[in-house]
Write a structure and sequence with these properties.
By secondary structure, the protein is of the alpha+beta class. It has one domain. It has seven helices and four strands, in the order αββββαααααα. A hairpin with a 2-residue loop joins strand 1 and strand 2. The two termini are about 30 Å apart.
Length: about 200
């Protein structure tokens, strides 16, 4: 879905209502504007992401995307650059279905979700942070915290449990994955080549 289209859906969603974002082979992603007022969130802006898979319905978090991508890169290291470019372009507000189209034809022995669903979840998490997050951040845009971890989970040789522990402790991603995109960092530049953070 295009960024502006998704933004309008999120903005116009009424309290207590839901909207189906995507469905593929029994795997459904939807958003809900909850009735309950959560502390620190604007009830008129807050929305929650849900997955329904068969009879199971649950709220995913960022780790689901990070782990899914790390599993994919472990079984298909030859696709690292393609995955990084696709998910960077989603971060830069391109349509995830278009960005992931070629990769959706590839075979991955290990993953958590269909890859198109992972791409759509990533767009939703970025939207969730951009639309809802109003706290002070060391990143500008604040969504760069999330995207830095996407890059690190796809590029790092660290073990997945160590990476997950760092995220759960709210540690920022390594500076190399964010500095040129971060307007709060002295190295920030507007024009940069793709995959500038790879050594």
């Amino acid at each position: 879905m295009k960024w502006d289209e998704l933004f309008n859906i999120v903005k116009d969603l009424e309290i207590g209502h839901s909207y189906k974002i995507y469905e593929e082979n029994g795997f459904l992603i939807k958003i809900i504007r909850p009735i309950r007022d959560f502390k620190g969130y604007d009830i008129k802006k807050n929305f929650q992401i849900f997955i329904k898979e068969g009879e199971r319905e649950f709220r995913p978090n960022h780790l689901r995307v990070f782990i899914d991508l790390n599993l994919r890169i472990r079984c298909r290291p030859d696709l690292k650059e393609e995955l990084l470019i696709a998910f960077d372009n989603i971060f830069y507000k391109n349509d995830p279905i278009i960005e992931i189209e070629k990769l959706s034809k590839e075979k991955f022995e290990h993953c958590l979700n269909p890859i198109t669903s992972t791409a759509i979840l990533s767009q939703l998490f970025i939207m969730e942070q951009e639309y809802n997050y109003h706290k002070e951040s060391m990143f500008e845009p604040p969504t760069l915290f999330y995207q830095g971890w996407i890059r690190q989970f796809l590029d790092s040789t660290k073990e997945i449990d160590n990476l997950c522990m760092s995220v759960c402790r709210f540690q920022p991603p390594a500076v190399k994955y964010t500095r040129l995109d971060n307007k709060r960092h002295k190295a920030f530049i507007y024009k940069k080549p793709p995959l500038w953070y790879l050594e």
